[in-house]
Amino acid sequence: MSSRKQLANAIRALSMDAVQKANSGHPGAPMGMADIAEVLWNDFM
Length: 45
What we know:
Elements: H1 3-22, H2 28-32, H3 34-44
Helix pairs in contact: 1-3
């Protein structure tokens, strides 16, 4: 698995943990946007 895919999967896992810890929210958007967030972070920031 590529390191970029691993980073996106880490974002997904962290977003699920954050929603569970807050006991509120919906993880669908952050999980769906994880690949986009990874590209933005690594290529543009």
